[in-house]
Specification:
- It is a single chain.
- By secondary structure, the protein is of the alpha+beta class.
- The chain has 11 helices and 20 strands.
- The strands form 3 sheets. Strands 7, 8, 9, 10, 17, 19 and 20 form a 7-stranded mixed β-sheet that branches. Strands 11, 12, 13, 14, 15, 16 and 18 form a 7-stranded antiparallel β-sheet that branches. Strands 3-1-6-2-5-4 form a 6-stranded mixed β-sheet, sandwiched between helices.
- The chain is flat and about 110 Å long.
- The protein starts with a helix and ends in a 22-residue tail after the last helix.
Length: about 475
């Protein structure tokens, strides 16, 4: 009996690690399944043709449309519908965005999706899928490309107006819509409203050309992640008592308008100095309704943003950002450059060269530091040295051409491709490669002796070569 009990004890000891491993494996699988379940985005479809979609089947609460089910909705539209397909692709979007910012409960005037709702109301065919599997959406562009036999064309409003679409030839137009809730520049409602205005302008352009189309709106990833209370440390009761984190108040960008927004300017910190006396102009510039923009100017080739401050360093000071837009045949596109920065005070003008602030005209420009101080990149170079004026712009962003609404386009960043860490890694690798090559060369240069001493014969004598 004692031997039997000991054997059972040993068997139980061997099975314990296996049971723990199985439990950990199950926990990992559950966590992965929950993470995959959260990766779902809405998909909105509408077309200028009739009877392309019937009522969506299996649209009960919690149902997630898979890639196979999505293909059953798209195949009839691509085979029988128009050959021009528009894909509006946002960075982030969730069905909760439509609930929070849409025209629900009859509040159409407060909707951030007025153009989209109007398009769905007027479209002969439309389909809304609240939750589509992330994998199905990630392969949507490739799927449409294979079905249409046309490569996706990334377009913006300026490019779309120059295109001449043909109803008989397939075309896949990809329009990227930003959703940067975490960037802090604008509130989500304002971003969604700006995206909706882009959708409205694109649809108006197609309507004016009388081009049949099928359009789809979706996103790369969800903007909101469902929170699992069971996974929160401390349980739900503790969470109700905790103080919610207050997000930092972020000021909106400066916008110069004539008939529409023309120039956008933003910085996290805007500081200037005269004679080593620094002044922070951030609170006097951003979020100010009566900011003096007198002297600002805009056309398709030249833009000037003028900021005037009263009683700055005891006088009136004007800062002028002057940008130019030119076409370069080598790249076959327009590029903008900040020609210079002017500081007007007491009848004198101080000039800073800012030609490194440049990028494609369809983008904005962003840089962590735009300053005349050497430690911060030295992108502002005074024409006369030394200069009494100094300026530092932290997280600087500006756009003066192809502005759509009150939001920046995708940013061309000033950060170089080769960072100091990359250079250190490359130099270290080259040095190690040199050592390895030298050692290998030395090993290959070794020569073995081809003559040996024979004890029966005469002794080998080696003459010394001087």
């Amino acid at each position: 009996m004692a031997a039997t009990a000991a054997a059972r004890l040993q068997a139980g000891t061997r099975q314990a690690p296996a049971l723990w491993q199985m439990r950990w494996l199950l926990l990992v699988l559950v966590a992965v399944a929950e993470a995959e379940a959260e990766q779902q985005v809405p998909l909105v479809l509408w077309s200028s043709d009739r009877d392309l979609w019937g009522p969506a089947a299996n649209t009960h609460e919690g149902h997630i449309t898979s890639d196979m089910q999505l293909s059953t909705y798209l195949d009839p539209a691509l085979e029988l519908g128009p050959r021009n397909v528009l894909l509006f692709l946002q960075d982030k979007l969730s069905i909760e965005d439509f609930t929070a910012y849409g025209g629900v409960f009859g509040n159409k005037q407060d909707s951030a999706f007025s153009n989209l709702e109007n398009a769905l109301d007027l479209a002969p065919s439309s389909l809304v899928l609240p939750a589509v599997d992330w994998y199905a959406v990630s392969t949507l562009t490739t799927y449409l490309q294979e079905k249409l036999g046309a490569s996706p064309l990334h377009v913006d409003l300026a490019t779309l107006r120059e295109l001449r679409l043909n109803a008989s030839l397939p075309a896949l137009l990809l329009i990227r819509l930003p959703y940067t809730a975490s960037s802090g520049l604008m509130a989500p409602r304002e971003v969604l409203t700006g995206n909706d205005e882009v959708i409205g302008q694109v649809l108006s352009t197609l309507k004016s050309e009388d081009v049949p189309y099928t359009a789809a709106l979706t996103a790369v990833r969800p903007s909101r992640v469902a929170r699992d209370v069971a996974m929160v440390t401390g349980g739900p009761g503790r969470q109700l008592l905790q103080k919610q984190t207050v997000s930092a108040v972020v000021h909106p960008p400066v916008s110069y308008n004539d008939t529409a927004p023309r120039i956008l300017f933003w910085a996290q910190n805007f500081s200037v100095a005269y004679g080593n006396h620094w002044e922070d102009l951030t609170s006097l510039t951003f979020g100010v309704q009566d900011l003096n923009l007198t002297g600002s100017f805009w056309n398709d080739s030249v833009a000037r943003l003028s900021l005037t401050y009263e009683q700055l360093f005891g006088t009136t000071v004007t800062f002028r950002f002057i940008l130019a837009n030119r076409f370069y045949p080598v790249s076959a596109r327009h590029w903008f450059t900040m020609e210079r920065l002017e500081i007007h005070s007491n009848g004198s003008v101080t000039y800073f060269n800012a030609s490194q602030v440049t990028g494609p005209s369809i983008y904005s420009f962003h840089c962590e530091y735009v300053s005349c101080l050497g430690k911060n990149g030295d992108l502002l170079v005074p024409r006369v040295r030394p200069s009494l004026w100094q300026m530092t712009l932290q997280h600087f962003q500006i756009q003066a051409f192809n502005v759509t609404g009150e939001q920046f386009s995708y940013a061309s960043d000033c950060a170089g491709f080769f960072s100091p860490g990359i250079w250190m890694g490359l130099l270290t690798s080259l040095f190690m490669l040199f050592i390895f090559t030298y050692g290998l060369h030395m090993i290959l240069s070794l020569k073995t002796m081809d003559r040996f001493d024979d004890h029966k014969g005469p002794t080998i004598s080696l003459t010394q070569i001087v």
